[in-house]
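job 3f2a | input accepted
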Amino acid sequence: MSVFQKYPIVRRDERCNQIYYENSLGDWCKSKYNEHGYHVYNETSDGFWWKRTYDSKGNVQYYADSDGVEEYLYLKDRERKIRILILDDDPITAMYMRSRLLVKYKDAFIETRQEPIVIPGFDIYMIDNQFGEAAMGIGLLGEIKRTSPSALIIAMSSTLSYEILSTMMNRGCNGIYDKANPADNESVFDLMAIHINTTKERIKDASKKQSPYIFRLISGFIRTRLYK
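job 3f2a | predicted structure (228 res):
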């Protein structure tokens, strides 16, 4: 009697965190979480890995990977890189997308998450619609619009129905990345490039406005100390 393996193979820990994923091609991804349930390590079958640490509030504080990237994420706004978050329960697809984006946007910080949880503070969100059996795209879109209203939002899917697609676009989704045809998405990357340039200009302008205030603050502190 033949036994057919159902793919993808997904294993979870006692907290329901995804710790292993394998597709039908044999590509796999292993994940580790800390005692608070935060995702701290990922390793894929092609040798790529990343690790990260968190502060007491659950914000990513440090990131490093096998490509030699190191990021300290507590830097001030004017010093930071553009931040992109990929939400996809398929870590192989997410890693492929991350690698593709790094070729185009070398100075960006790109993070991947396997659970449908929105982390505020990113400039661009790429969200999968399907997480397991559940369609999560519309809910994720609403949460991003509420917590990061100026962010660019790209939905990723190979199975979006016209109804879901129309609803997402009407509620603020900026573009659709078609997973079924990854080579035919240049318009999405053009949209991201425009948003990245606009965001960089906004950060630069905010830095210029902030500098005189910081100077006055320091000068006032010095005068207080001198004449105390």
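job 3f2a | The two ends are 89 Å apart (CA to CA).
job 3f2a | closed
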